[in-house]
Amino acid sequence: MEEKHLICISCPTGCRLSASRETADGEWKITGNRCPRGVAYAQNELHDPRRIVTAVVRCDSELLPCLPVRTNAALPKRFIAPLLNRLYQMEVKIPVKCGELLLADIENTGVNVIFSCDCVK
Amino acid sequence: MIQEETYDVAVIGAGAAGLAAAAETAGAGRSTVVIDREELPGGILRQCIHNGFGINYFKEELTGPEYATRITRIAEEAGAVFALGSAVTDVKRLPDNRFGLVALSAERGVVRYTARAVILAMGCRERTRGNLAVPGTRPAGIYTAGSAQKLLNRDGALPGTSAVIVGSGDIGLIMARRLRWCGIEVKAVIEIMPQPSGLPRNIAQCLDDFGIPLYLEHAVTNIGGAKRVEYVDVAPLADGIPDASKTFRIQCDTLLFSVGLVPENELSRQLGVELNPATGGARVDSGFQTSVPGVFAGGNVLHVHDLVDFVSEEAALAAKAALRYLDGAPPPERNRVRVEANLKYVVPGYFSRNLNTVFSFRPLITADAAQLTARLDGEIVWKRRLRGIRPAEMIKVELPGTLLNRSGDLVFSLETELEA
Protein backbone atom coordinates (compact mmCIF):
# COMPACT_ATOMS: atom_id res chain seq x y z
CA MET A 1 0.00 0.00 0.00
CA GLU A 2 1.19 3.51 -0.87
CA GLU A 3 0.59 6.45 1.48
CA LYS A 4 1.22 10.20 1.16
CA HIS A 5 0.74 13.08 3.58
CA LEU A 6 -0.46 16.51 2.47
CA ILE A 7 -1.54 19.75 4.10
CA CYS A 8 -4.70 21.16 2.58
CA ILE A 9 -4.19 24.74 1.40
CA SER A 10 -7.86 25.48 0.65
CA CYS A 11 -8.42 27.51 3.83
CA PRO A 12 -6.52 28.66 6.94
CA THR A 13 -7.50 25.53 8.91
CA GLY A 14 -4.80 23.56 7.03
CA CYS A 15 -6.17 20.02 7.49
CA ARG A 16 -3.53 17.31 7.55
CA LEU A 17 -4.60 14.92 4.80
CA SER A 18 -3.59 11.31 4.26
CA ALA A 19 -3.83 9.79 0.80
CA SER A 20 -3.52 6.04 0.32
CA ARG A 21 -4.00 3.57 -2.51
CA GLU A 22 -3.72 -0.22 -2.71
CA THR A 23 -2.02 -0.46 -6.12
CA ALA A 24 0.10 1.90 -8.21
CA ASP A 25 -2.78 2.51 -10.64
CA GLY A 26 -5.53 2.44 -7.99
CA GLU A 27 -7.73 5.28 -6.80
CA TRP A 28 -6.35 7.50 -4.02
CA LYS A 29 -8.47 7.43 -0.87
CA ILE A 30 -8.32 10.69 1.11
CA THR A 31 -8.81 11.02 4.88
CA GLY A 32 -8.23 13.78 7.43
CA ASN A 33 -10.30 16.41 5.60
CA ARG A 34 -12.95 18.40 7.47
CA CYS A 35 -14.78 19.49 4.31
CA PRO A 36 -15.18 18.33 0.68
CA ARG A 37 -12.62 20.86 -0.58
CA GLY A 38 -9.91 18.76 1.09
CA VAL A 39 -10.68 15.76 -1.13
CA ALA A 40 -10.76 17.89 -4.28
CA TYR A 41 -7.47 19.55 -3.31
CA ALA A 42 -5.74 16.23 -2.59
CA GLN A 43 -6.92 14.62 -5.85
CA ASN A 44 -5.61 17.60 -7.84
CA GLU A 45 -2.37 17.65 -5.85
CA LEU A 46 -1.70 13.96 -6.53
CA HIS A 47 -2.52 14.04 -10.24
CA ASP A 48 -1.93 17.60 -11.45
CA PRO A 49 -0.84 20.07 -8.73
CA ARG A 50 -2.26 23.55 -9.20
CA ARG A 51 -1.92 26.91 -7.50
CA ILE A 52 -3.68 30.27 -7.58
CA VAL A 53 -1.10 32.69 -9.01
CA THR A 54 -0.91 36.31 -7.86
CA ALA A 55 1.43 38.97 -9.24
CA VAL A 56 1.63 42.64 -10.21
CA VAL A 57 1.75 44.19 -13.68
CA ARG A 58 3.10 47.61 -14.59
CA CYS A 59 0.51 50.23 -15.54
CA ASP A 60 0.22 53.83 -16.75
CA SER A 61 -1.57 55.13 -13.63
CA GLU A 62 -0.31 58.41 -12.19
CA LEU A 63 -0.84 57.09 -8.64
CA LEU A 64 0.27 53.46 -8.81
CA PRO A 65 3.39 52.00 -10.49
CA CYS A 66 1.76 48.56 -10.76
CA LEU A 67 -1.56 46.77 -10.23
CA PRO A 68 -2.28 43.44 -8.52
CA VAL A 69 -3.60 40.58 -10.66
CA ARG A 70 -4.58 36.97 -9.98
CA THR A 71 -5.69 33.82 -11.73
CA ASN A 72 -9.42 33.21 -11.26
CA ALA A 73 -8.72 29.51 -10.53
CA ALA A 74 -5.74 27.34 -9.67
CA LEU A 75 -3.31 26.94 -12.58
CA PRO A 76 -1.26 23.74 -13.20
CA LYS A 77 2.15 24.37 -11.65
CA ARG A 78 4.09 23.87 -14.91
CA PHE A 79 2.40 26.97 -16.42
CA ILE A 80 3.21 29.29 -13.48
CA ALA A 81 6.75 30.39 -14.47
CA PRO A 82 5.84 31.16 -18.12
CA LEU A 83 2.77 33.09 -16.96
CA LEU A 84 4.79 35.17 -14.49
CA ASN A 85 7.36 36.01 -17.17
CA ARG A 86 4.58 37.12 -19.49
CA LEU A 87 2.94 39.28 -16.78
CA TYR A 88 6.20 40.97 -15.81
CA GLN A 89 6.74 42.07 -19.43
CA MET A 90 3.31 43.70 -19.76
CA GLU A 91 2.28 47.29 -19.23
CA VAL A 92 -1.47 47.76 -18.95
CA LYS A 93 -3.65 50.80 -19.60
CA ILE A 94 -6.00 52.13 -16.94
CA PRO A 95 -8.85 52.49 -16.05
CA VAL A 96 -9.45 48.93 -14.88
CA LYS A 97 -12.07 47.44 -12.57
CA CYS A 98 -11.55 44.77 -9.94
CA GLY A 99 -12.46 41.45 -11.60
CA GLU A 100 -11.83 42.71 -15.16
CA LEU A 101 -10.19 40.24 -17.56
CA LEU A 102 -6.49 40.67 -18.39
CA LEU A 103 -5.55 37.34 -20.04
CA ALA A 104 -8.02 34.64 -21.12
CA ASP A 105 -7.63 30.88 -21.16
CA ILE A 106 -3.97 30.46 -20.14
CA GLU A 107 -2.41 27.54 -22.11
CA ASN A 108 -5.91 26.23 -22.94
CA THR A 109 -6.59 25.52 -19.27
CA GLY A 110 -9.69 27.71 -19.11
CA VAL A 111 -7.95 29.71 -16.36
CA ASN A 112 -8.02 33.51 -16.75
CA VAL A 113 -5.95 36.31 -15.25
CA ILE A 114 -8.05 39.13 -13.76
CA PHE A 115 -7.31 42.44 -12.07
CA SER A 116 -7.71 42.34 -8.29
CA CYS A 117 -8.24 46.06 -7.66
CA ASP A 118 -9.86 49.14 -9.20
CA CYS A 119 -7.71 51.85 -10.72
CA VAL A 120 -9.21 54.96 -12.29
CA LYS A 121 -6.37 57.46 -12.40
CA MET B 1 -7.38 78.96 8.01
CA ILE B 2 -7.86 75.77 9.99
CA GLN B 3 -10.84 73.78 8.76
CA GLU B 4 -13.23 72.22 11.24
CA GLU B 5 -15.60 69.29 10.75
CA THR B 6 -18.01 67.61 13.15
CA TYR B 7 -19.19 63.99 13.11
CA ASP B 8 -20.88 61.50 15.38
CA VAL B 9 -18.02 59.04 14.94
CA ALA B 10 -14.34 59.42 14.00
CA VAL B 11 -12.64 56.20 12.94
CA ILE B 12 -8.84 56.34 12.96
CA GLY B 13 -7.44 53.99 10.30
CA ALA B 14 -9.00 52.87 6.99
CA GLY B 15 -7.83 49.26 6.99
CA ALA B 16 -9.79 46.04 7.47
CA ALA B 17 -10.87 47.18 10.95
CA GLY B 18 -11.65 50.85 10.35
CA LEU B 19 -13.63 50.22 7.16
CA ALA B 20 -15.76 47.52 8.82
CA ALA B 21 -16.41 49.84 11.77
CA ALA B 22 -17.22 52.84 9.55
CA ALA B 23 -19.63 50.75 7.46
CA GLU B 24 -21.47 49.82 10.64
CA THR B 25 -21.80 53.29 12.17
CA ALA B 26 -22.49 55.12 8.88
CA GLY B 27 -24.95 52.38 7.90
CA ALA B 28 -26.87 53.05 11.12
CA GLY B 29 -27.26 56.70 10.12
CA ARG B 30 -24.49 58.14 12.31
CA SER B 31 -22.24 60.63 10.51
CA THR B 32 -18.83 58.97 10.30
CA VAL B 33 -15.42 60.11 9.14
CA VAL B 34 -12.67 57.56 8.57
CA ILE B 35 -9.21 59.10 8.64
CA ASP B 36 -6.07 57.45 7.22
CA ARG B 37 -2.57 58.67 6.44
CA GLU B 38 -2.47 56.69 3.16
CA GLU B 39 -3.84 58.14 -0.10
CA LEU B 40 -6.07 55.11 -0.72
CA PRO B 41 -8.19 53.08 1.71
CA GLY B 42 -7.49 49.41 2.49
CA GLY B 43 -4.47 49.59 4.79
CA ILE B 44 -2.01 46.70 4.67
CA LEU B 45 -4.44 44.64 2.53
CA ARG B 46 -3.39 46.63 -0.52
CA GLN B 47 0.09 45.13 -0.48
CA CYS B 48 -1.09 41.61 0.44
CA ILE B 49 -1.71 40.62 -3.19
CA HIS B 50 -1.93 36.89 -2.36
CA ASN B 51 -5.19 35.02 -1.88
CA GLY B 52 -6.48 33.57 1.38
CA PHE B 53 -8.60 36.40 2.76
CA GLY B 54 -12.33 36.70 3.27
CA ILE B 55 -13.49 33.10 3.67
CA ASN B 56 -15.28 33.95 6.93
CA TYR B 57 -16.29 37.56 6.32
CA PHE B 58 -17.24 37.41 2.63
CA LYS B 59 -17.72 33.61 2.30
CA GLU B 60 -15.34 33.69 -0.64
CA GLU B 61 -11.56 33.43 -1.01
CA LEU B 62 -10.15 36.81 -2.01
CA THR B 63 -6.78 38.51 -2.40
CA GLY B 64 -5.95 41.43 -0.08
CA PRO B 65 -6.70 44.14 -2.68
CA GLU B 66 -10.05 42.47 -3.48
CA TYR B 67 -10.97 42.35 0.20
CA ALA B 68 -9.96 46.02 0.50
CA THR B 69 -11.99 46.97 -2.60
CA ARG B 70 -15.12 45.26 -1.28
CA ILE B 71 -15.00 46.54 2.27
CA THR B 72 -14.20 50.07 1.00
CA ARG B 73 -17.24 49.95 -1.27
CA ILE B 74 -19.45 48.83 1.62
CA ALA B 75 -18.23 51.70 3.82
CA GLU B 76 -18.70 54.20 0.97
CA GLU B 77 -22.21 52.98 0.18
CA ALA B 78 -23.07 53.19 3.87
CA GLY B 79 -22.20 56.89 3.68
CA ALA B 80 -18.88 57.08 5.49
CA VAL B 81 -16.78 60.18 4.69
CA PHE B 82 -13.13 59.45 3.84
CA ALA B 83 -10.31 61.75 4.95
CA LEU B 84 -7.31 60.21 3.17
CA GLY B 85 -3.72 61.32 3.07
CA SER B 86 -4.45 62.65 6.56
CA ALA B 87 -2.34 61.74 9.57
CA VAL B 88 -4.00 62.12 12.98
CA THR B 89 -1.38 63.72 15.21
CA ASP B 90 -3.45 64.67 18.25
CA VAL B 91 -6.56 63.33 19.88
CA LYS B 92 -8.02 64.37 23.21
CA ARG B 93 -11.18 64.31 25.22
CA LEU B 94 -12.92 67.70 25.34
CA PRO B 95 -14.61 69.19 28.44
CA ASP B 96 -18.04 68.41 26.93
CA ASN B 97 -17.10 64.68 26.66
CA ARG B 98 -16.70 64.89 22.92
CA PHE B 99 -13.32 64.29 21.25
CA GLY B 100 -11.05 66.66 19.37
CA LEU B 101 -8.75 65.29 16.67
CA VAL B 102 -6.10 67.13 14.69
CA ALA B 103 -5.12 65.71 11.30
CA LEU B 104 -2.44 66.93 8.91
CA SER B 105 -2.80 66.50 5.17
CA ALA B 106 -0.76 67.73 2.23
CA GLU B 107 -3.94 68.72 0.42
CA ARG B 108 -5.90 70.46 3.19
CA GLY B 109 -3.31 71.41 5.79
CA VAL B 110 -4.51 71.19 9.39
CA VAL B 111 -8.05 69.89 9.87
CA ARG B 112 -9.78 69.73 13.27
CA TYR B 113 -12.39 67.01 13.70
CA THR B 114 -14.87 66.90 16.54
CA ALA B 115 -16.64 63.61 17.23
CA ARG B 116 -18.89 62.18 19.93
CA ALA B 117 -17.20 58.76 19.73
CA VAL B 118 -13.81 57.55 18.50
CA ILE B 119 -13.04 54.10 17.11
CA LEU B 120 -9.35 53.21 17.25
CA ALA B 121 -8.42 51.10 14.19
CA MET B 122 -4.76 51.95 13.65
CA GLY B 123 -3.63 48.35 13.27
CA CYS B 124 -0.08 47.38 14.10
CA ARG B 125 3.47 47.77 12.92
CA GLU B 126 6.32 45.34 12.47
CA ARG B 127 9.05 44.49 14.92
CA THR B 128 12.47 45.11 13.41
CA ARG B 129 16.09 44.01 13.63
CA GLY B 130 16.45 46.59 16.39
CA ASN B 131 13.87 44.79 18.53
CA LEU B 132 15.94 41.59 18.30
CA ALA B 133 19.30 43.35 18.69
CA VAL B 134 20.99 41.15 16.05
CA PRO B 135 24.75 41.84 16.07
CA GLY B 136 26.73 42.75 12.97
CA THR B 137 27.27 45.60 10.54
CA ARG B 138 24.56 47.99 9.33
CA PRO B 139 24.56 47.49 5.55
CA ALA B 140 21.77 48.11 3.04
CA GLY B 141 19.53 45.15 2.19
CA ILE B 142 17.88 44.65 5.57
CA TYR B 143 14.08 44.97 5.49
CA THR B 144 11.08 44.06 7.54
CA ALA B 145 9.01 41.51 5.60
CA GLY B 146 6.22 44.05 5.22
CA SER B 147 8.43 46.80 3.83
CA ALA B 148 9.89 44.35 1.27
CA GLN B 149 6.30 43.37 0.43
CA LYS B 150 5.39 47.01 -0.16
CA LEU B 151 8.46 47.45 -2.35
CA LEU B 152 7.54 44.45 -4.51
CA ASN B 153 3.77 44.70 -4.62
CA ARG B 154 3.05 48.41 -4.58
CA ASP B 155 6.21 50.01 -5.90
CA GLY B 156 7.01 47.20 -8.35
CA ALA B 157 10.70 47.15 -7.33
CA LEU B 158 12.93 44.20 -6.41
CA PRO B 159 14.57 44.28 -2.94
CA GLY B 160 17.61 42.17 -3.93
CA THR B 161 18.74 38.94 -5.62
CA SER B 162 19.21 36.35 -2.86
CA ALA B 163 17.52 36.43 0.52
CA VAL B 164 17.38 34.92 3.99
CA ILE B 165 14.19 35.35 6.01
CA VAL B 166 14.29 35.62 9.80
CA GLY B 167 11.09 34.34 11.44
CA SER B 168 8.50 31.91 10.16
CA GLY B 169 5.38 34.02 10.68
CA ASP B 170 2.84 34.13 7.87
CA ILE B 171 4.16 37.38 6.39
CA GLY B 172 7.66 35.91 6.13
CA LEU B 173 6.37 32.71 4.53
CA ILE B 174 4.20 34.59 2.03
CA MET B 175 7.22 36.74 1.18
CA ALA B 176 9.37 33.64 0.59
CA ARG B 177 7.00 32.58 -2.20
CA ARG B 178 6.66 36.10 -3.52
CA LEU B 179 10.45 36.50 -3.74
CA ARG B 180 10.74 33.19 -5.58
CA TRP B 181 7.99 34.18 -7.98
CA CYS B 182 10.00 37.35 -8.69
CA GLY B 183 13.14 35.38 -9.52
CA ILE B 184 14.85 36.05 -6.18
CA GLU B 185 16.61 33.13 -4.53
CA VAL B 186 15.47 32.33 -0.96
CA LYS B 187 18.31 30.54 0.83
CA ALA B 188 16.62 29.80 4.17
CA VAL B 189 14.00 30.70 6.73
CA ILE B 190 15.41 30.90 10.27
CA GLU B 191 13.09 30.37 13.28
CA ILE B 192 14.12 30.38 16.95
CA MET B 193 11.07 28.40 18.10
CA PRO B 194 10.84 24.60 17.80
CA GLN B 195 7.72 24.97 15.62
CA PRO B 196 6.90 27.32 12.76
CA SER B 197 4.83 30.33 13.79
CA GLY B 198 2.88 30.60 10.51
CA LEU B 199 -0.10 28.56 9.33
CA PRO B 200 0.60 24.97 8.17
CA ARG B 201 -0.79 25.72 4.72
CA ASN B 202 1.75 28.51 4.28
CA ILE B 203 4.60 26.13 5.18
CA ALA B 204 3.20 23.81 2.49
CA GLN B 205 2.56 26.29 -0.33
CA CYS B 206 5.28 28.88 0.35
CA LEU B 207 8.27 26.80 1.52
CA ASP B 208 7.72 23.13 0.58
CA ASP B 209 6.57 24.03 -2.95
CA PHE B 210 9.96 25.66 -3.58
CA GLY B 211 12.20 23.43 -1.46
CA ILE B 212 13.14 26.34 0.81
CA PRO B 213 14.83 25.03 3.98
CA LEU B 214 13.31 25.98 7.34
CA TYR B 215 15.79 25.97 10.24
CA LEU B 216 13.83 25.57 13.47
CA GLU B 217 15.54 26.42 16.80
CA HIS B 218 18.17 28.45 14.95
CA ALA B 219 19.11 32.13 15.24
CA VAL B 220 20.95 34.66 13.09
CA THR B 221 23.98 35.54 15.23
CA ASN B 222 25.73 37.99 12.93
CA ILE B 223 25.03 40.10 9.85
CA GLY B 224 28.04 40.74 7.57
CA GLY B 225 28.69 43.16 4.72
CA ALA B 226 30.13 46.64 4.28
CA LYS B 227 27.74 48.56 2.00
CA ARG B 228 25.31 45.77 1.20
CA VAL B 229 24.47 42.58 3.13
CA GLU B 230 26.96 39.88 2.09
CA TYR B 231 26.19 37.03 4.46
CA VAL B 232 24.53 36.02 7.72
CA ASP B 233 25.86 33.62 10.34
CA VAL B 234 23.34 31.16 11.73
CA ALA B 235 23.67 28.94 14.79
CA PRO B 236 21.43 26.25 16.31
CA LEU B 237 20.05 26.97 19.76
CA ALA B 238 20.96 24.77 22.72
CA ASP B 239 18.74 25.51 25.73
CA GLY B 240 17.76 28.77 24.06
CA ILE B 241 21.35 29.97 23.56
CA PRO B 242 23.13 29.93 20.16
CA ASP B 243 25.74 27.15 20.01
CA ALA B 244 28.63 29.12 18.46
CA SER B 245 30.63 25.94 17.71
CA LYS B 246 27.99 24.91 15.13
CA THR B 247 27.70 28.28 13.37
CA PHE B 248 27.36 28.22 9.59
CA ARG B 249 27.40 31.05 7.04
CA ILE B 250 24.80 31.77 4.36
CA GLN B 251 25.71 34.14 1.49
CA CYS B 252 22.90 36.55 0.61
CA ASP B 253 22.37 40.21 -0.27
CA THR B 254 18.97 40.62 1.36
CA LEU B 255 17.68 39.90 4.84
CA LEU B 256 14.00 40.03 5.76
CA PHE B 257 12.73 40.20 9.33
CA SER B 258 9.31 38.68 9.95
CA VAL B 259 9.45 38.69 13.72
CA GLY B 260 6.06 39.80 14.95
CA LEU B 261 3.76 42.77 15.07
CA VAL B 262 3.11 45.41 17.72
CA PRO B 263 -0.25 47.22 18.04
CA GLU B 264 0.18 50.89 17.20
CA ASN B 265 -1.17 52.72 20.24
CA GLU B 266 0.52 56.14 20.40
CA LEU B 267 -2.85 57.89 19.95
CA SER B 268 -4.49 55.59 22.52
CA ARG B 269 -1.83 56.71 25.01
CA GLN B 270 -2.59 60.36 24.25
CA LEU B 271 -6.20 59.65 25.20
CA GLY B 272 -5.09 58.04 28.45
CA VAL B 273 -6.53 54.65 27.46
CA GLU B 274 -5.56 51.81 29.81
CA LEU B 275 -3.33 49.33 27.93
CA ASN B 276 -2.77 45.63 28.57
CA PRO B 277 0.98 44.83 28.49
CA ALA B 278 0.22 41.26 27.33
CA THR B 279 -1.51 42.40 24.12
CA GLY B 280 0.05 45.83 23.60
CA GLY B 281 -3.49 47.08 23.03
CA ALA B 282 -6.28 48.63 25.07
CA ARG B 283 -7.98 46.72 27.88
CA VAL B 284 -11.59 46.74 26.68
CA ASP B 285 -14.97 45.69 28.02
CA SER B 286 -17.35 43.24 26.33
CA GLY B 287 -18.34 45.97 23.85
CA PHE B 288 -14.72 46.81 22.98
CA GLN B 289 -14.96 50.13 24.82
CA THR B 290 -11.66 51.25 26.32
CA SER B 291 -11.19 52.72 29.79
CA VAL B 292 -12.10 56.12 28.28
CA PRO B 293 -15.90 56.29 27.77
CA GLY B 294 -16.70 56.89 24.10
CA VAL B 295 -13.41 55.43 22.83
CA PHE B 296 -13.62 51.97 21.25
CA ALA B 297 -10.97 49.73 19.69
CA GLY B 298 -10.99 46.75 17.33
CA GLY B 299 -8.69 44.74 15.10
CA ASN B 300 -4.90 44.61 15.26
CA VAL B 301 -4.66 47.81 17.31
CA LEU B 302 -6.25 45.78 20.11
CA HIS B 303 -4.39 42.49 19.68
CA VAL B 304 -2.64 40.87 16.71
CA HIS B 305 -4.99 38.57 14.78
CA ASP B 306 -4.16 35.61 12.50
CA LEU B 307 -6.93 36.37 10.02
CA VAL B 308 -8.13 39.64 8.56
CA ASP B 309 -11.71 38.34 8.69
CA PHE B 310 -11.58 38.36 12.50
CA VAL B 311 -10.15 41.89 12.42
CA SER B 312 -13.21 43.14 10.52
CA GLU B 313 -15.63 41.13 12.67
CA GLU B 314 -14.16 42.51 15.88
CA ALA B 315 -14.15 46.12 14.66
CA ALA B 316 -17.79 45.77 13.58
CA LEU B 317 -18.63 44.67 17.13
CA ALA B 318 -16.76 47.69 18.50
CA ALA B 319 -18.79 49.89 16.14
CA LYS B 320 -22.07 48.35 17.34
CA ALA B 321 -21.09 49.18 20.91
CA ALA B 322 -20.21 52.73 19.81
CA LEU B 323 -23.75 53.03 18.39
CA ARG B 324 -25.22 51.93 21.74
CA TYR B 325 -23.03 54.53 23.47
CA LEU B 326 -24.34 57.24 21.12
CA ASP B 327 -27.91 56.10 21.88
CA GLY B 328 -27.19 56.77 25.55
CA ALA B 329 -27.14 53.16 26.72
CA PRO B 330 -25.49 52.65 30.11
CA PRO B 331 -21.86 51.48 29.83
CA PRO B 332 -21.15 47.74 30.21
CA GLU B 333 -19.88 46.60 33.60
CA ARG B 334 -16.18 46.21 34.14
CA ASN B 335 -15.73 42.90 35.90
CA ARG B 336 -12.15 41.80 35.43
CA VAL B 337 -11.18 38.93 33.05
CA ARG B 338 -7.74 37.39 33.53
CA VAL B 339 -5.70 34.44 32.28
CA GLU B 340 -3.59 31.93 34.15
CA ALA B 341 -1.88 28.71 33.03
CA ASN B 342 -0.66 28.51 29.41
CA LEU B 343 -2.51 31.55 28.06
CA LYS B 344 -0.73 34.75 27.04
CA TYR B 345 -3.79 36.99 27.10
CA VAL B 346 -7.55 37.30 26.82
CA VAL B 347 -9.65 39.94 25.05
CA PRO B 348 -11.89 41.53 26.31
CA GLY B 349 -10.30 42.30 29.65
CA TYR B 350 -13.65 42.99 31.34
CA PHE B 351 -17.07 41.29 31.19
CA SER B 352 -20.65 42.33 31.82
CA ARG B 353 -23.02 40.10 33.75
CA ASN B 354 -25.63 38.18 31.72
CA LEU B 355 -24.16 39.18 28.34
CA ASN B 356 -23.12 36.59 25.73
CA THR B 357 -19.43 37.35 25.16
CA VAL B 358 -16.83 36.20 22.63
CA PHE B 359 -13.40 35.78 24.22
CA SER B 360 -10.16 35.61 22.18
CA PHE B 361 -7.01 34.01 23.56
CA ARG B 362 -3.42 33.51 22.51
CA PRO B 363 -2.08 30.18 23.85
CA LEU B 364 1.53 29.85 25.01
CA ILE B 365 1.77 26.09 24.34
CA THR B 366 1.54 23.56 21.52
CA ALA B 367 -0.74 20.62 22.33
CA ASP B 368 -2.87 18.08 20.45
CA ALA B 369 -5.63 18.59 23.00
CA ALA B 370 -6.18 20.81 26.02
CA GLN B 371 -8.98 21.94 28.27
CA LEU B 372 -9.97 25.58 28.49
CA THR B 373 -11.60 26.34 31.83
CA ALA B 374 -13.40 29.45 33.08
CA ARG B 375 -13.61 30.14 36.80
CA LEU B 376 -15.93 32.89 38.03
CA ASP B 377 -15.15 34.04 41.55
CA GLY B 378 -13.16 30.81 42.08
CA GLU B 379 -15.87 28.43 40.87
CA ILE B 380 -15.68 26.53 37.56
CA VAL B 381 -18.55 27.80 35.38
CA TRP B 382 -17.51 26.52 31.94
CA LYS B 383 -15.00 24.22 30.29
CA ARG B 384 -14.30 22.96 26.81
CA ARG B 385 -11.87 20.49 25.30
CA LEU B 386 -9.97 22.03 22.38
CA ARG B 387 -7.89 20.33 19.69
CA GLY B 388 -4.75 21.42 17.85
CA ILE B 389 -3.51 24.18 20.18
CA ARG B 390 -0.70 26.29 18.69
CA PRO B 391 0.64 29.72 19.70
CA ALA B 392 0.23 30.77 16.05
CA GLU B 393 -3.53 30.25 16.20
CA MET B 394 -5.88 32.42 18.20
CA ILE B 395 -8.54 30.63 20.26
CA LYS B 396 -12.05 32.14 20.09
CA VAL B 397 -14.97 30.92 22.22
CA GLU B 398 -18.36 32.34 23.12
CA LEU B 399 -19.66 32.08 26.69
CA PRO B 400 -23.41 32.38 27.22
CA GLY B 401 -24.49 35.27 29.43
CA THR B 402 -26.47 32.89 31.64
CA LEU B 403 -23.16 31.54 32.99
CA LEU B 404 -21.77 35.01 33.65
CA ASN B 405 -24.48 35.69 36.22
CA ARG B 406 -22.51 37.38 38.98
CA SER B 407 -19.65 39.80 39.41
CA GLY B 408 -16.14 38.82 40.47
CA ASP B 409 -13.00 37.91 38.55
CA LEU B 410 -13.39 35.64 35.53
CA VAL B 411 -10.20 33.58 35.18
CA PHE B 412 -9.36 31.38 32.18
CA SER B 413 -6.74 28.64 32.15
CA LEU B 414 -5.60 26.07 29.60
CA GLU B 415 -4.59 22.65 30.93
CA THR B 416 -3.09 19.79 28.95
CA GLU B 417 -3.48 17.13 31.65
CA LEU B 418 -7.12 16.26 31.29
CA GLU B 419 -9.01 15.09 34.30
CA ALA B 420 -10.49 11.60 33.97
From TrEMBL, chain A:
Pfam families associated with the record: DUF1667 (PF07892)
Official protein name in the record: CxxC motif-containing protein
Superkingdom of origin organism: Bacteria
SUPFAM superfamilies: CPE0013-like
InterPro entries: CPE0013-like_sf, DUF1667
From TrEMBL, chain B:
GO MF annotation list: oxidoreductase activity
Protein name: Thioredoxin reductase
Lineage: Bacteria, Pseudomonadati, Lentisphaerota, Lentisphaeria, Victivallales
Residue span(s) of domain FAD/NAD(P)-binding: 7-309
InterPro entries from the UniProt entry: FAD/NAD-bd_sf, FAD/NAD-binding_dom, Metab_Enz_Cyan_OpOx_G3PDH
Keywords: Oxidoreductase
Signal peptide: none
